[in-house]
């Protein structure tokens, strides 16, 4: 016994901490994942479902007069909790919270609350910096980037007099500019956070003042632990509070947790019975009570504590606490005591910053940066060694050479002037050359990349095609540094429910007594209006949502004929209306005589069923803990709820015991077919069972989710027996959950089958089209779902993932060996050869049959993380489609890892629920659907959007653009800086390797930050190789990103060779032209400066795809700006180069050189471009020609967004 | 009830976003649909570009080549000639000695008519006026105004005299001022060399102060070059100003003066050179150059040839591309060239 109890405790804790993962335990579910199912089993400790039985109190008891002889009387309200929760909560209360680890909260007495701890106030702070700490912290963070350290070291090196190649200011300037721009950006972001914090902290709540004996308003930031607060309906909860009392006499409060976990339905929270009667309020300002609870933690589904009231110790669980960020709904007021405040609230502990990832392009870029460092070091070595050799050769001459003056003759003693021997000079020369050639590593690249990504994010967020009308949500860019990864995706891992489907359940059809009623084609509010609108006491009650009804079934129900079938149908809908945990809420509308019935519940399936029952005339009107009121075809009837066995994963069904108005007691059970057929009385109704099974099969192959409903009338004895056992079990101290489960299993037997329902999980708009295009783009789509195999396959067909010409490899095995066997079979049958050797053989042997792999979660258990993984990988990678059903959340991540660890291909995971979080975090790019299931997926994601179909514009359009732009920009930046460095290098060869630069130090400093920075950024943000329409029309164009076509080592080398050639043109044309002339260094330097800026800008101009006015302005503007800068620099009298530009510009030679340089420099590139574009055109090139020549975009049709996707 | 509930329940049409819609505003800019020109390299454009370049480059090439050829240039390298036979083995001693007669005479023949002005240059070779130690060894403040006379930063080792008073102009550049002199005569008749206005006007007016006078100049133990008349301000010392505009390359010319009379072909010019400047310590060479100028500067065929080569190359390319385009034509923008259409077997 003792052991058992410990297990329970253990389980409770485990559940408490792992609910987020357990939410979608596909394999355990009768029907697809948790979120659409009676949630109970999936997350027991949540205890959020309205559990009517648990609310029973004496007051309800008194009212329960309709069936007094079967009512259950219980002195202790907790006794009747049929859920496992209660037993767990009970068990946990046995566990002492050691004072050392607990937090002590004196209710209503914040002063004496836990003096040991320094508790934070309730003010929150999401801002990173304060005005004081901004500078040091921001700099510290910025210098995490290795490149900045490099530039800092060089700048410091340059301050030493021996190496002072540049002036002091000049050497610091570029780094300073880069740091400043980043700092300004950070400061702005932080200022916005400060502002948001201020607003949040100054909100007002009412707090009980024990001295004034009334609730006074107080700012949120002043709320302290231990204070008693009162929150009114529709207000936000200011901090985590333990409920003491609510406006409901039974202590129920409803909260909406959208801000916390995103779930939009109402959650039920309870105040403890012991405190509800006498809450601290105006009348009793001082409440005696001590709460012991856990230290603050991030688990929003767990809370452990107890409260001492009047000497009694009461246990507190997660259902007794309301958390900051929630909103109170449907409850007039609640009173609670603050237990966690400010930064210790669970919502704050859970707010994590956006994930930081590094894009593939940036990783590759680092490789090239290393290569560039290699080139840099090589150049420096050449210069310093040549310097050494030159000095060795001229050793004797240097004594008197006027330009060197090794010796200082000014003093009488003979000493060397600024000369330390050849060895040292070589060393100095090396360091100085590092300083001179430093911009080989492009400092501005990092900041340019950030700015470009910012711009790209701006356009992605602002794209009207990524805006979801139905949820009013824009695209969100949460991770800013992996934009370009969107252009290289090879695998898409998608969740099914809520991602491919809408997670909006709709009752489609039913089979009752073996007869299929699926003729529901007309919405009931057009046809059978009278069913959904009730007339009672001059009030019209409308259903919030209507369901299409089958006319035949409606006729059957309304005829009230006493046939077997008619009775069965009525019982079927009665079962649907009562066998659930749905709470009907009556909402007033603008018309005072009209009310709207809204069914709130945890499970969309149940909601759909109740709406369906209502549409057919069985309207659930009221639910309290002890009874429900159902309007049965216009006749309002009251049913007692005598018992409820909640859904759990072992039984995969739920049941209620209902006392009917005719004094019979009935057990209604609904559950998954697999679990229901085992408990149905097989001897009777055999034909019906068979028919039902056939219909069920038909439903599930249509992609419908099915639930079977059964009934059994309980005899008096049987009921009494059950009641007795139930009371015993409920009061059991130890192993209560187990006892209750056993009891449920015991009573749920020998059922008469009533029928089964088919619920459609509707596909989202445009999903089939989107999947088709994605597959055309060479992206492999894997769907991972918690659904059962048949449902998954049928959804696969309906969203065009599977097609009939595909060969399906189905693996669902229950053991390792059979798994292994089926994998090997598949390999043998489809002649799959591992991709490493000879794919030509593979492709011919396969004879082009597209393959689909369907594997279930149980098999995956035997495959993942064993040596079978390799086999699975082999099979899966040759398959066009992979469908994994009944997978657990962690398995989803395992499947992503299967691909990620074995290939270099980029993976993208898309999902909407908490169960997808692990997958989203594992994949290279994680996308959250901001849908029904909550915000956890969004919080963990890199990008968030409203609909699955947005993946198409996101990947094909923005991803493609982002990748192409960023790839080009990186290459261009490397090129641009290396041209400059090579020019310096060539000149150094003619200065006795003494590292003089002809180009003034200011120009070389400003070169990469001002002269040439803007056009790359503009092109990086705005240029597009192809229009949106073309990219969507030809998904195959996406493949250029997958194959790294725009950025690879070959392109890098070509660019570098080009840069060497161009630098040769820039240096040697003037060199040869001015060789025997009077030209001075500054003039030559000015010529080089202008030539290089013009050349790199023309180079960019030649690669620009689309010239709009911004591109024109930035490119030509930059050249003009450079001329102006050079003129300004040459107007400074203090600099040796003053006025040089005016002198040289007056000569014809200068202009001839400039023209010659530009033409000679660009010629090779132009020839290559003309040749490749015409004779070896890439797909993108052809598409560009298509666009241009066929006037694909010529007319103003661009404003019409992809019609195929916006219209179903 | 709540926004999400609202929008999910009920029919789609009824989903009205509460509050303000977050729908991004449409503008051509935010949707990246700014009107733009999309150039592509069609054969016509490629060929006409090459033709255009040919048309531009060949004439310019001819013009500059002609101009360069029309420049008449007399170059005389005198560094070896101007040392007496007996001193050939110890040139350094000859040049450093203060007693040797450094005058040296040579007759040059004018090859063609030279129209005035004939520029007289000296050309030094292997003299690294762009050496980092050298270019930095000056102080522009000191050169510009009297008040900064004591400003001698960067000038070491020619910053101050041994007693600490500043050298004006300080630094290695000024110290190493070129001091060979030339005089010309035709048939015993002296030809005037105009040494006015050989420096940049901007330098004279703004860079070298008219109130700055040479001081303590060339008074150290090692004489680097010319001495300056201490009674003339720096702005008048045009040789110094020319010299201090340091050359870009180790082989450079500097303007010495102008001969403002025409020289006719086959005239014999007698040049008398005072060979004072020490280039022997670093194997530097000295040349005297008499040259006319043209619009492209001095005599330099390179640019003309380069333009002709590039122009010719463009012509060849134009023809080559024409041949290529016609031998392997491709319809631009033909979807059948797309890789997935070309190769339906898959990828």
**Helical coverage of chain B, percent range:** 25-40%
Total DSSP E strands of chain B: 9
Low-confidence segments of chain A, given as residue ranges, are: 1-96, 522-532, 834-847, 1192-1208
What is the count of distinct domains of chain B? 2
Most residues in contact, chain pair and counts: A-B, 125 and 118 residues
Query: What structural category arises from helix and sheet content of chain B?
Result: alpha+beta
Shape of chain B: extended
Task: Report on this structure.
The complex is a heterodimer of chains A (1208) and B (347). Helices cover 44% and strands 18% of the residues of chain A. Chain A has a nine-stranded mixed β-sheet, sandwiched between helices. A nine-stranded antiparallel β-sheet of chain A has the order 19-18-32-31-30-29-28-27-26, with helices on both faces. In chain A, strands 3-2-4-13-5-11 form a six-stranded antiparallel β-sheet, with no helix packed on it. In chain A, strand 27 and strand 28 form a beta hairpin. In chain A, helix 4 packs across helix 6. Chain A is elongated, with a radius of gyration of 37 Å. Chain A starts with a helix and ends with a helix. In chain A, 55% of the residues are buried. The N terminus and C terminus of chain A are likely disordered. In chain B, strand 4 and strand 5 form a beta hairpin. In chain B, strands 1-9-3-7-6 form a five-stranded antiparallel β-sheet. A four-stranded antiparallel β-sheet of chain B has the order 2-8-4-5, with no helix packed on it. Chain B is 28% helix and 15% strand. Chain B has 347 residues and is of the alpha+beta class. Classes of the chains: A alpha+beta (1208), B alpha+beta (347). Chains A and B meet through strand 14, helix 11, helix 34, helix 35 and helix 36 of A and helix 1, helix 2, helix 4, helix 5 and helix 7 of B. Chain B: Its main location: membrane. Chain B: InterPro entries: CDC50/LEM3_fam. Chain B: Belongs to the CDC50/LEM3 family. Chain B: This is ALA-interacting subunit.
């Amino acid at each position: 016994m003792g052991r058992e109890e410990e297990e329970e405790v253990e389980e409770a804790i485990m559940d408490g901490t792992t609910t987020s993962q357990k939410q979608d335990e596909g394999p355990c579910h009768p029907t697809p994942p948790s979120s659409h199912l009676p949630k109970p089993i999936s997350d027991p400790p949540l205890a959020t479902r309205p559990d009517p039985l648990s609310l029973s109190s004496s007051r309800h008891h008194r009212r329960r007069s309709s069936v007094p002889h079967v009512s259950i009387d219980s002195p202790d309200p907790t006794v009747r909790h049929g859920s496992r929760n209660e037993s767990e909560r009970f068990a946990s209360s046995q566990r002492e919270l050691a004072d050392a680890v607990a937090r002590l909260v004196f209710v209503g007495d914040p002063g004496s609350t836990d003096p040991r701890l320094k508790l934070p106030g309730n003010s929150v702070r999401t801002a990173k910096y304060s005005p004081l700490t901004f500078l040091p912290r921001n700099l510290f963070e910025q210098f995490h980037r290795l490149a900045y350290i490099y530039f800092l070291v060089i700048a410091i090196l340059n301050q030493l007099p021996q190496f002072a190649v540049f002036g002091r200011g000049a050497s610091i300037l570029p780094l300073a500019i880069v740091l400043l721009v980043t700092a300004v950006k950070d400061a702005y972001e932080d200022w916005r956070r400060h502002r948001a914090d201020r607003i949040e902290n100054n909100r007002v709540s009412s707090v009980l003042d024990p001295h004034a004996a009334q609730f006074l308003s107080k700012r949120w930031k002043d709320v302290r632990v231990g204070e008693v607060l009162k929150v009114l309906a529709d207000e936000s909860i200011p901090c985590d509070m333990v409920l003491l009392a609510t406006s409901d006499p039974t202590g129920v409060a409803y909260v909406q947790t959208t801000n916390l976990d995103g779930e939009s339905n109402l959650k039920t929270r309870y105040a403890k019975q012991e405190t509800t009667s006498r809450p601290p309020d105006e009348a009793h300002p001082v409440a005696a009570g001590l709460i012991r609870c856990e230290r603050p933690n991030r688990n929003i589904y767990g809370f452990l504590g107890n409260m001492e009231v009047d000497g009694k110790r009461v246990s507190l669980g997660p259902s007794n606490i309301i958390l900051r960020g929630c909103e109170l709904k449907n409850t007039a007021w609640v009173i609670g005591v603050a237990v966690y405040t400010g930064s210790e609230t669970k919502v704050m502990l859970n707010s994590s910053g956006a994930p930081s990832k590094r894009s593939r392009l940036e990783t590759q870029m680092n490789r090239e940066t290393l290569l560039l460092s290699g080139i840099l070091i090589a150049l420096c070595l050449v210069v310093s060694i040549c310097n050494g050799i030159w000095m060795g050769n001229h050793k004797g001459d240097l004594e008197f050479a006027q330009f060197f003056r090794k010796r200082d003759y000014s003093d009488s003693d003979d000493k060397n002037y600024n000369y330390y021997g050849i060895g040292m000079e070589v060393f100095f020369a090396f360091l100085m050359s590092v300083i001179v050639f430093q911009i080989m590593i492009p400092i501005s690249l990092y900041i340019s990349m950030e700015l470009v990504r910012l711009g790209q994010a701006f356009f992605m967020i602002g794209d009207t095609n990524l805006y979801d009308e139905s949820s009013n949500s824009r695209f969100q860019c949460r991770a800013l540094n992996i934009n370009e990864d969107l252009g290289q995706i090879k695998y898409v891992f998608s969740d099914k429910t809520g991602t491919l489907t809408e997670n909006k359940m709709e009752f489609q059809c039913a089979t009752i007594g073996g007869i299929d009623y699926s003729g529901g084609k007309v919405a009931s509010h057009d046809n059978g209006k009278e069913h959904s609108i009730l007339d009672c006491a001059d009030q019209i009650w409308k259903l919030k949502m209507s369901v299409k009804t089958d006319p035949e079934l409606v006729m059957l129900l309304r005829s009230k004929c006493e046939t077997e079938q008619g009775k069965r149908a009525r019982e079927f809908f009665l079962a649907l209306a009562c066998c659930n945990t749905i709470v009907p809420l009556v909402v007033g509308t603008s018309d005072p005589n009209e009310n709207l019935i809204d069914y709130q519940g945890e499970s969309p399936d149940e909601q759909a069923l109740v709406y369906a029952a209502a549409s057919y005339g069985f309207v659930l009107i009221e639910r309290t803990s002890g009874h429900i009121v159902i309007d049965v075809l216009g006749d309002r009837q009251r049913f007692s709820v005598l018992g409820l066995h909640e859904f759990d994963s072992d039984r995969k069904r739920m049941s209620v015991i209902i006392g009917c108005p005719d004094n019979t007691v009935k057990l209604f059970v609904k559950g998954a077919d697999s679990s229901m057929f085992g408990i149905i009385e097989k001897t009777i109704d055999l034909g019906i069972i068979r028919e039902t099974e056939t219909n069920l099969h038909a439903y599930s192959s249509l992609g419908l989710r099915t639930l079977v409903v059964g009934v059994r009338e309980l005899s008096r004895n049987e009921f009494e027996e059950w009641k007795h056992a139930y009371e015993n079990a409920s009061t059991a101290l130890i192993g209560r959950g187990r006892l209750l489960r056993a009891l449920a299993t015991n009573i749920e037997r020998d059922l008469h089958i009533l029928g089964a329902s088919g619920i459609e999980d509707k596909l989202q708009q445009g999903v089939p089209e989107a999947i088709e295009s994605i597959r055309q783009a060479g992206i492999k789509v894997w769907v991972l779902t918690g659904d059962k195999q048949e449902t998954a396959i049928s959804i696969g067909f309906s969203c065009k993932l599977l097609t009939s010409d595909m060969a399906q490899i189905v693996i669902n095995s229950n053991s390792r060996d059979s798994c292994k066997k089926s994998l090997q079979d598949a390999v043998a049958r489809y002649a799959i050869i591992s991709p490493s050797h000879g794919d030509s053989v593979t492709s011919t042997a396969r004879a082009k049959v597209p393959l689909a792999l369907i594997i279930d979660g149980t098999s995956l258990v035997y495959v993942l993380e064993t040596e079978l993984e390799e086999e699975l990988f082999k099979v899966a990678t040759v398959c066009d489609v992979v469908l994994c059903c009944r997978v657990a959340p962690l398995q989803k991540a395992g499947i992503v890892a299967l691909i990620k660890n074995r290939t270099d291909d980029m993976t993208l995971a898309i999902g909407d629920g908490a169960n997808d979080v692990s997958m989203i975090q594992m994949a290279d790019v994680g996308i959250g659907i901001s849908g029904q299931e909550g915000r956890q997926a969004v919080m963990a994601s890199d990008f968030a959007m409203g609909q699955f179909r947005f993946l198409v514009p996101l990947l094909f359009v923005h991803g493609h653009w982002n990748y192409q732009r960023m790839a080009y920009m990186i290459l261009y930046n490397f090129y641009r800086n290396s041209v400059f460095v090579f020019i310096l290098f060539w000149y150094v060869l003619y200065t006795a390797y003494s590292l003089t630069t002809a180009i003034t130090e200011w120009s070389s400093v400003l070169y990469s930050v001002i002269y040439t920075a803007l056009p790359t950024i503009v092109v990086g943000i705005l240029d597009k190789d192809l229009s949106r329409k073309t990219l969507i029309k030809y998904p195959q164009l996406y493949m250029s990103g997958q194959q790294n076509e725009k950025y690879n080592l070959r392109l890098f080398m070509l660019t570098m060779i080009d840069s060497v050639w161009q630098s040769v043109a820039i240096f040697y044309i003037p060199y040869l032209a001015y060789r025997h002339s009077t030209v001075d260094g500054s003039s030559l330097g000015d010529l080089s400066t202008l030539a290089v800026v013009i050349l790199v800008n023309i180079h960019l101009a030649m690669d620009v795809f689309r010239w709009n006015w911004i591109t024109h302005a930035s490119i030509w503007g930059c050249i003009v700006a450079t001329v102006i800068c050079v003129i300004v620099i040459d107007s400074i009298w203090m600099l040796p180069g003053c006025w040089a530009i005016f002198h040289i510009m007056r000569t014809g030679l200068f202009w001839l050189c400039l023209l010659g340089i530009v033409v000679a420099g660009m010629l090779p590139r132009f020839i290559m471009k003309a040749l490749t574009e015409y004779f070896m055109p890439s797909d993108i090139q052809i598409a560009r020609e298509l666009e241009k020549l066929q006037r694909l975009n010529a007319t103003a049709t661009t404003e019409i967004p992809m019609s195929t996707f916006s219209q179903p | 009830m709540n926004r999400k509930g609202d929008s999910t329940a009920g029919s789609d049409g009824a989903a009205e976003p509460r509050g303000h819609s977050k729908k991004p505003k449409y503008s051509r800019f935010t949707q990246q649909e700014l009107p733009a020109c999309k150039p592509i390299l069609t054969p016509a454009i490629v060929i006409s570009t090459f033709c255009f370049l040919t048309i531009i480059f060949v004439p310019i090439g001819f013009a500059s080549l002609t101009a360069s050829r029309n420049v008449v240039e007399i170059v005389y390298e005198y560094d070896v000639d101007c040392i007496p036979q007996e001193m050939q083995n110890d040139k350094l001693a000859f040049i450093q000695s203060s007693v040797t007669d450094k005058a040296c005479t040579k007759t040059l023949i004018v090859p063609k008519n030279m129209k005035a002005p004939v520029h007289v240059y000296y050309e030094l070779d292997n003299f690294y006026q762009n050496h980092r130690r050298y270019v930095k060894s000056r102080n522009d403040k000191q050169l510009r105004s009297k008040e900064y006379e004591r400003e001698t930063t960067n000038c070491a080792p020619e910053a101050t005299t041994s007693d600490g008073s500043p050298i004006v102009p300080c630094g290695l550049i000024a110290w190493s001022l070129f001091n060979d002199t030339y005089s010309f005569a035709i048939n015993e008749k002296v030809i005037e060399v105009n040494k006015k206005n050989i420096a940049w006007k901007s330098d004279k007016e703004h860079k070298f102060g008219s109130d700055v006078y040479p001081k303590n100049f060339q008074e150290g133990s090692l004489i680097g070059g010319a001495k300056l008349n201490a009674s003339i301000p720096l702005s008048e010392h045009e040789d110094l100003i020319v010299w201090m505009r340091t050359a870009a390359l180790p082989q450079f010319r500097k303007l010495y003066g102008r001969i403002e009379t025409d020289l006719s072909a086959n005239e014999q010019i007698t040049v008398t050179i005072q060979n004072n400047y020490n280039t022997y310590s670093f194997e530097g060479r000295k040349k005297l150059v008499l040259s006319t100028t043209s619009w492209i500067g001095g005599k330099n065929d390179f640019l003309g040839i380069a333009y002709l080569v590039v122009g010719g190359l463009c012509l060849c390319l134009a023809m080559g591309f024409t041949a290529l385009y016609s031998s392997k034509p491709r319809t631009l923008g033909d979807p059948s060239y797309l890789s997935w259409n070309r190769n339906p077997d898959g990828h």
